[in-house]
UniProtKB/TrEMBL annotation, chain A:
Locations listed in the record: Cell membrane
Function: Part of the ABC transporter complex LsrABCD involved in autoinducer 2 (AI-2) import. Probably responsible for the translocation of the substrate across the membrane.
Organism from which the protein derives: Chelativorans intermedius
Ranges annotated as spanning the membrane: 26-47, 106-126, 133-151, 171-193, 224-246, 252-273, 280-297, 303-323
Name of the protein: Autoinducer 2 import system permease protein LsrD
Cross-referenced PANTHER family: ABC TRANSPORTER PERMEASE PROTEIN YPHD-RELATED-RELATED, AUTOINDUCER 2 IMPORT SYSTEM PERMEASE PROTEIN LSRD
Keyword line: Cell inner membrane, Cell membrane, Membrane, Transmembrane, Transmembrane helix, Transport
Keyword Cell inner membrane: yes
Entry keyword Secreted: no
Classification of source organism: Bacteria, Pseudomonadati, Pseudomonadota, Alphaproteobacteria, Hyphomicrobiales
TrEMBL record, chain B:
Family from the record: Belongs to the ABC transporter superfamily.
Domain of life according to the entry: Bacteria
Organism for this UniProt entry: Chelativorans intermedius
One Gene Ontology term of the molecular function aspect: ATP binding
One family name in Pfam for this protein: ABC_tran
Swiss-Prot/TrEMBL keywords: ATP-binding, Cell membrane, Membrane, Nucleotide-binding, Repeat, Sugar transport, Translocase, Transport
Protein name per UniProt: Sugar ABC transporter ATP-binding protein
The ABC transporter domain, residue ranges: 22-258, 270-512
């Protein structure tokens, strides 16, 4: 026994429940409840199962992307081309439709284009060591530009009726297919980030990429996979959105990347990488959905929503910094 | 009250010549889970150099940060010339006449020397614009005072490293400082520059400045300091006059026990070759490297900075790609393209740059330790926290890590303890070959001895070690064999017996003269003459 060590070092100082109670996620739950109550009090139409179900469509597609984006941002990278990938994938599905593709082919085309765009981003970032913010601003214009060239001011319409189910169908009562899909996606990424060695490596890369490399983490491979997954989720979102709208225009999902990033950051993910959680982003997505829905019920114009999103983004990036300052901690020496 | 009496006792017997400029009393400072300073006192006198001595993590840097207003103490008082002061910000401390010269000073390459010196407190004209003429003139005066022949209008980037250091010192002196803190000022300087620094310190003493001098080098302390204060584990364990103490007494105070042998004798059975490298080349960094590492052996790599030693090690670890050559592990050809493969093959590398390449600040201790071993602590890719804590505990306790909990952020540990986490991380992978790149650089004497003792333990357990070091005593004391590299090539190879410092330095510098023959014929020598 005397051999072990003179000083015993405990595993943890506080239990995981205590730290959970003090976490950002707990605060987010409180905010979600608050928004819910305000909405319920201010509009008589809010507390209605079908209306609430409709509200979920406001965020499910964006939130699917946000799940993958959360991992990417934690790893210290970002993908600003996600909305443009939706446009390109949707356009590709529209083209496939012109050549007589059925629902299964449309789904495959959507997923494939998303995956290919993600691979292209990942290749540029990991293969050439370029900063992802620059690369994906470039591909943002590139992907949407291709969609504009193909479509001009036209639109693809006439998607098959069974394809519409992906965006409009219900699995059970008021539970839509999209909501179930989003829940599954969130579960997948939550488990991936928090319960696997891969997730641990994502955190390591975000905190110190050189240190991670020197610890045997295949940094480039992990980052490439993250870009692939973000692309794939954008493709999935493109399928749902196209099916929901029943048409493709090149301006589809315009400026969604802003809302996706806002969700991720509101969820407590450090924009500089290294920390954050999927439960946080999950709750943040619901908050964004509830707020949008509340604004809709109150007849607030869309541009105000956009202003709100912008302010929210600044506030949630600023809040943790102010929080640390108020507690008298120095962020940097 | 009791503590106060003790403090007075420690110092009154050696009443100093001048009167006190700065007194710290009962200073306490805690960080989450760590008590960095507890009831610390310090006195600085005008015209006197006080050396602050202590192991890594003893609380020296925390004290400097309190003195310069970066941290605020939880308890205790700071008195300046008899008046109690409180530094809410670094600016307050600056205005009170406390200035610090750090080991790595932040200067601005694109600005002129004068602009660097007066950045933040440049003289102004009546219109509020910077008075360039006066700034250049005053910069010239300050530079002259420290005996530096530097043009105030020169661009900083055009200066050498030593001149930059002088500019940093001039910057610290451009404010009318009464107290000058020097935090390991000689770490980046050559021999001649260090002598010049000593002269400068003498001049500052003559001007009546109180100097706090932090250093790990004992010869330096005995050369320049008048008084000393020793910290251990965040407490003040002794203070007094340098003239009334000696080397051993200080070491004992510092580590709390006598440090016997820095380089422990060890008996490790040298076995068959574990790692064989032949014809190993890189387009620019090294060429035609061949050597053999045997089981239970410590192979030292000596050379000047830029001789290509770290680059060679990083290639063996799969970070950089060699152009030619073969690596065999246990006789089997191994192509190593990434650190992940190197780790799987049993080669690990403890890098020189601890902060950037070694520890991952932001992740807790246990996650740092298990990062390269995730394949063992996970099942089907899923984490098993209990396994992780077990592995982390096993290896950190072997190294006597000091931390509040295994869940603590590695970034909050002291440098020496971070190094322990990095070494624990690699041992947890159960390697065959461990490459240590400058393992004791910047580490205090106590931790150094611990690392050396641990190395002996490792080879006794059958590991093989490659040790890159620029410290001759370490190379001579620890290695079984020494390879000297020069300009990317192996310049010489020596056995341990009969090797002396001069021979090593000559080989590393390539000083003309015949190379001594291989002293040990039994050593396999893939060495072609230089």
């Amino acid at each position: 026994m005397s051999e072990t060590t003179q000083r015993f070092i405990p595993d943890r100082l506080e239990s995981r429940w205590t730290s959970l109670l003090k976490s950002w996620e707990t605060l987010l739950v409180a905010v979600a409840v608050f928004v819910f109550v305000v909405n319920a009090l201010s509009s008589p139409y809010f507390l209605n199962a079908w209306n609430l179900s409709d509200a979920t469509f406001n965020f499910t597609e964006k939130a699917m992307i946000a799940m993958a984006m959360a991992l990417l941002i934690i790893a210290g990278e970002i993908d600003l081309s996600v909305a443009a990938i939706i446009a390109l994938a949707s356009t590709a599905m529209g083209l496939a439709l012109q050549y007589g593709a059925g629902t299964p082919e449309l789904v495959l085309v959507g997923l494939f284009v998303g995956l290919a765009c993600g691979a292209f981003n990942g290749w540029l970032v990991t293969g050439f060591g370029l900063p992802s913010i620059v690369v994906t601003i470039g591909t943002m214009s590139l992907f949407r530009g291709i969609a504009y060239i193909i479509l001009g001011d036209q639109a693809f319409t006439g998607y098959p009726a069974d394809f519409a189910w992906f965006g409009q169908g219900y699995v059970w009562w008021v539970i839509s297919f999209e909501l179930v899909l989003f829940a599954l996606v969130a579960l997948f990424f939550g488990v991936l980030l928090h319960c696997t060695g891969f997730g641990r490596q994502v955190y390591a890369i975000g905190n110190n990429p050189t240190g991670a490399l020197f610890s045997g983490v295949r940094v480039a491979r992990v980052k490439f996979v993250l870009f692939l997954m973000t692309g794939l989720m954008s493709g999935l979102a493109a399928i749902c959105l196209t099916a929901r709208l029943g048409s493709t225009r090149p301006s589809i999902a315009f400026a969604w990347e802003l809302e996706v990033v806002t969700m991720v950051v509101l969820g407590g993910v450090n924009i500089l990488g290294g920390s954050g959680s999927i439960p946080g982003v999950f709750i943040a997505a619901i908050i964004m959905g509830l707020v949008t829905f509340g604004f809709g019920l109150a007849n607030v114009p869309g541009i105000v929503m956009s202003i709100f999103t912008g302010l929210l983004l600044i506030a949630v990036i600023g809040a943790p910094i102010l929080w640390h300052r108020l507690r008298g901690e120095k962020t940097l020496p | 009250m009791l503590q106060k009496a003790r403090t007075e006792n420690a110092d009154t017997p050696q009443a100093p010549s001048g009167q006190l400029v700065l007194t710290l009393a009962g200073i306490c400072k805690s960080f989450p889970g760590v008590r960095a300073l507890s009831d610390v006192s310090l006195e600085l006198y005008p015209g006197t150099v006080t050396a602050l001595i202590g192991e890594n993590g003893a609380g020296k840097s925390t004290l400097v940060k309190i003195l310069t207003g970066i941290y605020q103490p939880d308890e205790g008082t700071i008195r300046l010339g008899g008046r109690e002061v409180f530094f809410a910000t670094a600016y307050d401390a600056h205005r009170a006449g406390i200035t610090a010269i750090h080991q790595e000073t932040v200067l601005f390459d694109e600005l002129s020397v004068a602009e660097n010196i007066f950045l933040g407190h440049a003289p102004r004209t009546r219109l509020g614009l910077i008075d360039r003429a006066r700034m250049n003139r005053e910069a010239g005066t300050v530079l002259e005072r420290i005996g530096a022949a530097i043009d105030p209008q020169a661009r900083l980037r055009d200066l050498g490293i030593a001149s930059k250091h002088l500019v940093a010192i001039a910057r610290a002196l451009s404010v009318d400082a009464r107290i000058v803190i020097m935090d390991e000022p000689t770490a980046a300087l050559s021999h001649k520059e260090i002598e010049e620094l000593y002269e400068l310190i003498e001049r500052l003493k003559a001007e009546g400045k109180a100097i706090l001098f932090i250093s790990h080098k004992f010869d330096e302390i005995f050369r320049i300091a008048d008084r000393y204060t020793v910290f251990r584990d965040g407490e003040c364990v002794g203070a007094g006059l340098i003239s009334k103490t000696n080397h051993d007494a200080l070491v004992r105070l510092m580590v709390g026990r006598p440090v016997g042998q820095i380089f422990p004798k060890r008996k490790a059975e040298i076995g068959p070759a574990v790692l064989t490298v032949s014809g190993y080349s890189h387009p620019t960094e090294f060429a035609d490297i061949g050597f053999e590492l045997r089981r239970g052996e410590i192979l030292g790599f000596y050379g000047l900075v830029g001789a290509g030693r770290s680059e060679l090690m990083q290639a063996l670890f799969g970070i950089t790609k060699p152009s030619r050559g073969a690596v065999r592990i246990d006789g089997e050809v191994a192509v190593i393209r990434s650190p992940a493969e190197a780790i799987r093959r049993g080669i690990v590398y403890v890098p020189e740059e601890r902060g950037r390449q070694g520890a991952i600040a932001g992740l807790p201790i246990f996650q740092n330790v298990t990062l390269p071993s995730l394949s063992r602590t996970t099942r089907h890719g899923f984490l098993r926290l209990a396994e992780e804590f077990k592995l982390a505990r096993e290896y950190t306790s072997r190294l006597d890590l000091r931390a509040a909990s295994l869940d603590q952020d590695v970034g909050t540990l002291s440098g020496g303890n971070q190094q322990k986490v990095v070494i624990a991380k690699w041992l947890a992978t159960a390697p065959k070959v461990i490459i240590l790149d400058e393992p004791t650089k910047g580490i205090d004497i106590g931790s150094k001895a611990a690392v050396h003792a641990f190395m002996s333990e490792l080879v006794a357990a059958g590991l093989s070690i490659i040790m890159v070091s620029s410290e001759i005593p370490e190379i001579l004391g620890m290695s079984d064999r020494v390879i000297v590299m020069r300009e990317g090539r192996i310049a010489a190879e020596f056995a341990r017996e009969g090797l002396d410092a001069e021979t090593l330095v000559r080989a590393a510098a390539g000083i003309a003269g015949e190379m001594p023959p291989m002293p040990d014929a039994s050593t396999p020598a893939p060495l072609q003459g230089p």
